[in-house]
Amino acid sequence: MTAFSLLLLVCHVSSAVKHTLKYYTTASSGVENQPEFVIVALVDGVQAAYCDGSNKILEAKQEWGRKVFDSDPQLYQRYSVECFENQPNLFKATISSLKQRFNHSTGVHTFQSVEGCEWDDTTGEVAGSVHYDYNGEDFIAFDVSTLTWVALKQQAFLTKLSWDVQRARLKYNQRFITQICPERLKTYLQHGRSSLLRTDRPSVSLLQKTPSSAVSCHTTGFYPDRALMFWSKDGEEIHEGVEHGEILPNHDGTFQMSVDLNVSSVQEEDWRKYHCVFQFIGAEDAIFTKLDKTLIRTNWVKPYHVTVPVVAAAVVVLALVAMATAGGYLVHKQRKEAADSTELPEATNLNTAS
After folding, report:
1. What structural domains does the chain harbor?
2. Cut 0.85: pTM above it
3. Dihedral angle, C-alpha 22, 27, 32, 33, nearest 10 °
4. β-pairing, 203-208 with 296-298?
5. pLDDT per residue over 98-124, tens digit each?
6. Burial class (CB in 10 A: 0-12, 13-18, 19+), 178
7. Is residue 330 over pLDDT 70?
8. What is the DSSP string of 124-187?
């Protein structure tokens, strides 16, 4: 059986992906040389837009983000009004009130929100959230199922009472999560299809320098870089004896990553219990590669016996030179052995009413 056929038997892939649009809003006081109000919009973890309310800067960060603004000038205008006027004033008033409530008169203080949605491009299912922090700690969150606010700490209860009676705002947050945000997300995906919807599956290799070395699960050629990889035993992720490498770029714009497993204490009969797992973040399924000696690529060669693995690791050249004479001279033999070994590879957001 070929190496490719073996790999197909131990690997499974699904391309279903959940896409996200999130707005991160930060208001601050007491921070020198930094804008007091900033909003960053991320689509699938990629920065799409940036707003500096203090310096009146609003710009798209990607070509497809600029196309969204160009196709809907009114959206750009709404973003500008919210970012430069409405939201900075709201956040400034809120952070001032919280400083008094917490008896914070001096120092650096922040009020932040994370608002957004998630859309499953296979099932069409939508989910979302609106969440606020004060000084980096959970403060209050919106419950879309009950249309109420949930105080995440005692000092947030007064804010909950105040915000719970703002019916228009509650209804808007519900519409933002279920309609406005998903529609904007789909618009971004439409204009950024070539990059945001691009998914390149990786090739997977098991690598080992010597029998006593760790087995490295190496993936390369995948895109985007929103991926994770780990070793599992009996279907459960393991951490002991595992060393994770960084995600590195390839010259063609794709990415590569490795995760090593120390097999020195793994009994041979237990190898089949281990799998290297690669998964795109947001994808439902993953690629599973079984820990199998027949799949391991190595540059190690036994001294007098070379076993060629599934992907050839060495080429042995034997040269026999026989010299003899007709007058009873002894036969002299010389033997040369050379091996070429393979080298191991490598937020309140722009949340505006539409």
Report:
1. 3-14+199-297 (2.60.40.10), 18-196 (3.30.500.10), 303-341 (no CATH)
2. no
3. 50
4. parallel
5. 999 999 988 999 999 999 999 988 889
6. middle
7. no
8. --EEEEEEEEETTEEEEEEETTTTEEEESSGGGHHHHHHHHT-HHHHHHHHHIIIIIHHHHHHH
